[in-house]
Design a protein that fits this description.
YlxR-like_sf; three-stranded antiparallel sheet; alpha+beta; 6 helices; Hypothetical Cytosolic Protein, Chain: A; 5 strands; single chain; two-stranded antiparallel sheet; 128 residues; binds zinc ion
């Protein structure tokens, strides 16, 4: 009946869509996700950056990437946080007009290595 693609396929337009998706390189992009640090503007693997989310005007660290809404990515280093604050990169990243509080992120970065916060969901995972 109707032709949704330029290619001629006996199976119909659906098959064309499937082929397009597979050839679009999405697999590669997912294997090496990269983000730009809002502080030093260096690209880095997503896993090496700390996700920052905003809750009621306060930047909060989101190391597990579970908070909803817009996210910004930052090297987990106080120097990069300082750069981001000085450049006002965080309000820009979150499309906010006013300044955003960064105390929670600063406290998170200031934590000595190896002294990670207790994981609340550990019991849940063990039960499954
Ligand atoms: Zn950085």
């Amino acid at each position: 009946m109707a032709h949704y693609c330029t290619g001629v396929t006996p199976q119909g337009p659906r098959r064309c869509v499937e082929v397009d998706l597979k050839a679009s390189g999405r697999t590669h992009a997912q294997a090496f996700p990269e983000r730009t640090c809002v502080g030093c503007r260096t690209r880095a693997a997503k896993g090496d950056l700390l996700r920052i989310a905003v809750i009621e005007g306060e930047c909060v660290p989101d190391p597990r990437g579970t908070l909803p809404g817009r996210g910004a990515y930052l090297h987990p280093a106080p120097a990069c946080l300082d750069l981001a604050v000085r450049r006002r990169a965080l309000p820009r990243a979150f499309r906010e007009r006013g300044p955003l509080g960064t105390d929670a992120v600063r406290a998170f970065l200031g934590r000595p290595a190896g002294e990670a916060p207790p994981r609340a969901s550990r019991g849940e995972q063990a039960q499954r």
